[in-house]
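Feature request, filed as a ticket because there's no other form

It would be nice if the structure record came with a short human-readable summary line next to the tokens. Right now we just get the raw output. Example of a typical job, pasted below so the devs can see what we mean:
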Amino acid sequence: TQQAIAFPDGKLEVRSNASRAAVDSWDYAVVLVSGAAVLLVVVNLLVFWLVGRTVRPFGQIVGALEEVQRGRFDVTLPPLPGREAGTIGTAFNRMVGELERHLETERRAVRAEAQLSDSRELTRWIDHHIEQERLMIARELHDELGQSVTAMRSMATSIAQRSVGKDAQAEQAARLIADECSRLYDAMHGIIPRLTPLVLDNFGLADALADLAERTRRSQPALTLMAEVSLGSARLPADAALALYRAAQEGITNALRHGEAGRIELRLSGSPGEVVLTLRDDGRGLPAGGPPRDGHFGLRWLRERVEALRGTVTLDNAAPRGVLLTVRLPLDPETA
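Raw output as currently delivered:
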């Protein structure tokens, strides 16, 4: 294209040059693109530096997490730069501290459980040896001392009979000796069941409980004692039978000594999976805070004995009055 501008003394003609305009446009575009590229590089470097500075503490956090995964729970993070990293680091240290406390509590619980298991094993061992000693003493009393006392009574009775009409003083002394031997024999036979229930070894738990109830009725004429045993076909191991007998013995003793009961109901029932002994009395009941711990070693010993056999002992107030003792012992399938 061409454009002319007239002046008084001449004219100005302007002609366009397309090739030159294209070159100028290209040069301008190169300068613009180069500036943009430089600016982009600078911005990327700045962003990379800022991101690297921001995420650098997270490498420490990841390393600390890997240490925790390997089982080190005493690792802690130093104060980290940046608000987010600092918050995460504080939370991590708090989490590790709580985790360490929980693990220490669990370790103490494991140690306590192991000590409890050892204590129960020791309790069973002590209980077994105590029962063996009681059995030996009871048999010695029954076989040796019992025979000696019986022989003494027979000889005294014989002397008294031969002295009739001949020597009144000798007859009186002999009858006194015979009476004392009878009282000693009765007292000895009252001690033997408290040491060990020989009836239990010879005839079983049902007869042993019946004998316990009968002896209690004779010693406590004013007491009404009802005993009901329904084991069915359940066969009890010796240690379980002894634990149930001792539970009944301890329950009756406590009902009379502490509850001043006038009526006691003793029941023993067996099912395919367990044996349950209940003893209910109409005494004064338990105090408001439950059974006192001081001095009541019989109940604690009974609880240890039953729990060693994987059983439970509960002692609650009964309605309308009195105490209900419940002992549950599981039975193995081959013994049920």
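Something like this underneath would help us a lot:
The chain has a mean pLDDT of 82.
The chain has seven helices and seven strands.
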